[in-house]
Amino acid sequence: MIDWWISQIFLEIKSMNPGLEDPRKAAGALKQDLAYVDLIPWSFMVIASWDEATKVVAQENDQHAFIEGNIFTYVGPSYSKQNNGPEWSREWIETVKWYHLTSLTTHNADGNDYAGMTPMDQASRLIFNFLTEYPAWQDLFCGLSPYSNDKSKNLASLGSYFYDLCYYQIAHIYSMLGTNTYSQLNAPNKEFNMLYRKTLEWAVTGTTLHTNMDTALNRSSNNKGNTMDILMLAIAEAGQHGTVWTLVWIQFMQHHKNIQAEWRQLVDVS
After folding, report:
1. From its phi and psi, is residue 239 left (phi > 0), alpha (psi between -120 and 50) or beta?
2. Same domain, 137 and 92
């Protein structure tokens, strides 16, 4: 997704500047100050991610119909009449969340009682499942070479462009933007750190996560947050958009656990 945008933008820039070198070939990670980063249409990427996340739920439910004998018996919310796409609504995000956490319960045969876990613990399992499916990301998660803290910080600038906008959209859905609706809203680092720690609790003996657990846990809170920003974009890049939006929702709910609102849902016992 992001690499495609960068490729298209670079080709357009190169057509105007024939001597320009593709910065993706340069040593080291992408940096926030690269000119084309701000040109990437992040809002469209977030919309596309949302569309994919909701589409999977709709297809699984046979276009909002009941599936006899299947645990997925939720009749999905409506699509927008204006563009035939999924509406930005509480009903949709809670449907996406419900679907993916229910999938965790029904599609895992490892003996764990996911239905009896808090959403925060379930969310950490979704992250762990991704790291198991794509073990190369475990090095980044633990801060191992070549993912030094400085390089992770640079990469995180890309991840935060995407994920912070996802978080902004959820805050908008629940009317928590306040009066200044044009400000950037960063995903809260405290909840990122909670998910980071809980993800490590799933580590299996012999894996990179388990072997380097102490190193990972002793990283600073900012470095853990940077890692999670990168990971959220990586999960989206892998096409697991429903997981991303489930994680956004859980992080948002945990951050607002102490407010009095009819939509508030407790997602962790701590």
Report:
1. left
2. yes
Report if pTM > 0.70: yes
The 3-state secondary structure of 66-88, one letter per residue: CCCCCCCCCCCCCECCCCCCECC
Residues 78 and 119 in one domain: yes
User: pLDDT digit string (tens) for 40-70?
Assistant: 677 778 888 888 888 877 766 544 433 333 3
- Phi and psi, residue 165, nearest 5°: -70, -35
d(CA 195, CA 201): 10
In this structure, which long-range contacts are made by residues 256-264, counting pairs with CB atoms below 8 Å and at least 24 apart in sequence? Answer: 256/174, 256/176, 261/174, 263/90, 263/174
- 1 and 57 both lie in a single domain: no
58 is in which domain, residue-wise?
42-255
**Same domain for 7 and 73:** no
Statement to judge: residues 29 and 51 lie in one domain: no
Q: What one-character DSSP code corresponds to residue 176?
A: -
| Domain co-membership, 249 together with 199 | yes
On whether residue 267 sits in a domain, the answer given is no
Contact (CB, 8 A) for 6 and 40: yes
CA 151 to chain centre: 20
| Residues 174-212: tens digit of each pLDDT | 988 876 666 668 899 999 999 999 999 999 899 999 999
The residues, any chain, with a CB within 8 Å of residue 175's CB and separated by 6 or more, are none
- Quickly list H helices, the chain: 2-16, 42-60, 90-107, 119-133, 137-142, 149-173, 189-200, 208-211, 213-217, 221-237, 241-255
Total domains present in the chain: 2
For residues 32 and 58, state if they share a domain.
no
Does 144 lie in the same domain as 20?
A: no
- CA-closest candidate to residue 229, choices 144, 98, 137: 137
